[in-house]
Amino acid sequence: MQRLYRKRIVLGVGGGIAAYKSAELVRRLRDQGAEVRVVMTQGGREFITPLTLQALSGHPVHMDLLDPAAEAAMGHIELAKWADLILIAPATADLMARLAQGIANDLLTTVVLATDAPVALAPAMNQAMWRDEATQANSQLLIARGLHMFGPASGSQACGDVGLGRMLEADDLAQLAADCFKRESLTGRHVLITAGPTQENIDPVRYITNHSSGKMGFALAEAAVEAGAKVTLVTGPVHLPTPDRVNRIDVVSARDMLAACEAAMPCDLLIAAAAVADYRPEVVAQHKLKKDPSTGDGMLLQMVRNPDILATLAQREDRPFSVGFAAETEKLLDYAARKLKDKNLDLIVANDVANPTIGFNSEENAITIIDRDLQQNSLAQTSKGKIARQLIAFIAERLNNQA
Ligand code: C5P
């Protein structure tokens, strides 16, 4: 089985003698189905030629931060966003120190700083350098920040010493890279995500809508693809580009959204992140409504309930694992728990839209996930991209572990 099927890996190659093993590592990662792009530091290039890694990865090697031609082809931010995982092998003591400090003075360190993807390091250095207090402190700091540390192994070293500091072998590194995706794997799953607002027409020129930007739903679609899922994203009107490898279906009203979701069934997992209008005007006027002097300063608009998309799909016989959102401005957890029950959900994600830094249209989010046992798990405030990855990992673990 290709454990890294369609995974996008940025392989960072630092300046250590173990860089000769990176060539083999590119092969092993590709054997597992990964697409690999190599970023080399200046030091890395002293030990192995970019041409070797270009030939093995099938792509030009990325080297310079300030090279306009390279930036035009695939810039550092693009590369940071492209990656599902950044694996640095070999990671030298110097690279670890720079990463620990957040220094971004070359392409590789800049990409690491700019990415939302998990980062793994395969340290490789002389045993005394590895044991040094500074290196150990940097290693602990990076682990505490969530970076994965692969190795180092113990044994004889190129310099003649014996001890901890050898880089792990290519096979081991490829397996560990695959393990990074294991827990959160949605490989082979069909995930249906609703996103954005809906628009409910009043007449040909007016409609009722809400402040939803769609950012959370789109970030979830991207994270689900990275976790290996086949993703259908049904979205109301938003101004967002379609994430790579996502099947996007644009809709306008709640009833359109329900029809599109029903057509996309069956799915294994439904995440309803759309802010669906609860009501729509009972009749949509054929012509633009005119001011009516007979009603004075007022006007009455008769509204009717929209179907509940999430509840409808969660009621079906082929019901998917169902995750809803509860965006509230008060009594957040109470309302969320009630919705979980009323809509027959597996999980509900509560988010406090009264807080302007995490509400509608903001770049960040902070959420509490509530399950059927009313257990709560909170994810601290961070970018919607990071929250989406954490949420997808959480959901995938539940989905994969259900009876
Ligand atoms: O009941 P409320 O609108 O607060 O529920 C929010 C959750 O239900 C969200 O996950 C939202 O996407 C979903 N929903 C829906 N169809 C509706 C209303 C809400 O799918 N008509």
Notes on the structure:
It is a single chain. By secondary structure, this protein is of the alpha/beta class. The chain has 2 domains: 2-179, Rossmann fold; 190-285 and 295-400, CoaB-like (Rossmann fold), CATH 3.40.50. 36% of the residues lie in helices and 25% in strands. It has helices at residues 20-31, 42-47, 50-57, 68-73, 76-82, 93-101, 107-114, 127-131, 133-144, 170-182, 215-226, 254-264, 309-314, 332-342, 384-401; strands at residues 8-13, 35-40, 85-91, 119-123, 148-149, 153-156, 162-166, 190-195, 200-203, 206-208, 230-235, 246-250, 269-272, 279-281, 303-305, 321-328, 347-352, 364-371, 376-383. The protein has an 8-stranded mixed sheet, with helices on both faces. A 5-stranded parallel sheet has the order 2-1-3-4-5, sandwiched between helices. A two-stranded antiparallel ribbon has the order 6-7. The longest helix has 18 residues, at 384-401. The radius of gyration is 25 Å and the shape is elongated. The chain starts with 7 loop residues before the first strand and ends with a helix. The relative contact order is 0.09. The mean pLDDT is 93. It binds cytidine-5'-monophosphate. One of its GO terms (biological process) is pantothenate catabolic process. It catalyses: (R)-4'-phosphopantothenate + L-cysteine + CTP = N-[(R)-4-phosphopantothenoyl]-L-cysteine + CMP + diphosphate + H(+); N-[(R)-4-phosphopantothenoyl]-L-cysteine + H(+) = (R)-4'-phosphopantetheine + CO2. Catalyzes two steps in the biosynthesis of coenzyme A. In the first step cysteine is conjugated to 4'-phosphopantothenate to form 4-phosphopantothenoylcysteine, in the latter compound is decarboxylated to form 4'-phosphopantotheine. One of its GO terms (cellular component) is phosphopantothenoylcysteine decarboxylase complex.
